[in-house]
């Protein structure tokens, strides 16, 4: 409450500088908001000089103070306070304000030395050109301005590198992050910077460089588990499955253990880089996986790679985690690697079936069917596209809610029909053709058609409807093969014909159709169909559309016609004989 006086202002500003540093350092959370103490301090300076600036913004206030206050004794305290102001602005992402402030802080000679040449970063050039004021022996600082300058340079490079990374300017991001890695920070932050460098290199299509950065991150701080997670993703991209699985196993083991508190070997500062850099991009890159997410990735990768025994073990471990309230532990904001829980059950059933545990697979599918049955409406009308309108209108909220409910109903229908499909194939593997036909015939066919009325009319189908189409095709092929096993060739022929209506040109359905015609002694029709199939291009045979869910891949493999060469040889012999008979 005392009037501002020039002789005591250097001490007053130094006390303010120290107290703000203590305030920032006492909290381990990121700096937010404005530093009100700095504004009050600048107004005290103007008051002592007979001026005022109550209505000015912080940028305008700094400009007024630095241009009008020429007292030599105040220059050093003001410069130190300006550096502290830059820290608050850096935490808020106000880089332009920082650049303007340091242009004011620089003398004419400094500006000349700090001129930003082409290719250099303007803000970093200004920060490096700033001449740190000499400390006075009578005014002790809790953190030197020289250290604060180094931290500002490191944090500015780190923050701008993250911004360029988010914008997709990867070469610039790489350069800035490398600048930050050579700066002044703790080992924890250095490991984070190397992790970001690894992610940047990966996005640039340089996986080996990415691995070098990620390994360096772990060498600097072995508790930087996001680096290990990203390394596993790079190994997956490279197709190095063994190494990827080893990395995921190490990650799971590390996440399961509670690491002991390790004292930092880095020097402690009140103002630190980690207090200044906090962006959504950094949060996303450094997100710690939940152990269950890693367990699921292990199961999924093993199943994709054909390591069925390991996949079953991991899936069963994951399903056991569900009993521990998994949904409450995993984020639901889309950042999790976990799919919807019914999909995990279906993948587990697929793994069990591949391992020969057909009855266990049937049991797991029954759980999916039981839990989704009551969630599906009696009739489900599906439009060509299920998308939110770009321009909101009155009632758009209700329309969006209806679309969301419709998509959810489609998902539930797809999961339940997939459960019946997997059960059908499991019964077929057990040699129970009648039971298999029953499962193939249930909601995979009749109910899916009656509930979802546009399975084949529209071109731009929602992904859930594409999945339902594929399930319907695989169910028809599955049921048709079982009819063939029972010698019911006419019923089999009808199923394969319907399958080709669902998916024209499908090679499995077409091959089975040829076989069914042949068994019905309709050899001329069979030969004509075989010629049509053999003339279609491989691209047409593979078909179009989105990749299938993992839980349907096994069904797709089981539906492949197994006797292509034998059938081709038989038909060719028939055509050759028919040609000879015609010529004679």
TrEMBL record:
TPR repeat feature ranges = 473-506
Cellular component terms (Gene Ontology): Fanconi anaemia nuclear complex
Quote the InterPro entries the UniProt record gives: FANCG, TPR-like_helical_dom_sf, TPR_rpt
Q: Which organism is it from?
A: Tyrannus savana
Query: Which keywords fit this entry according to its UniProt record?
Result: TPR repeat
A single GO BP: interstrand cross-link repair
Q: Which domain of life is it from?
A: Eukaryota
- Organism ancestry: Eukaryota, Metazoa, Chordata, Craniata, Vertebrata
Name by which UniProt lists this protein:
FANCG protein
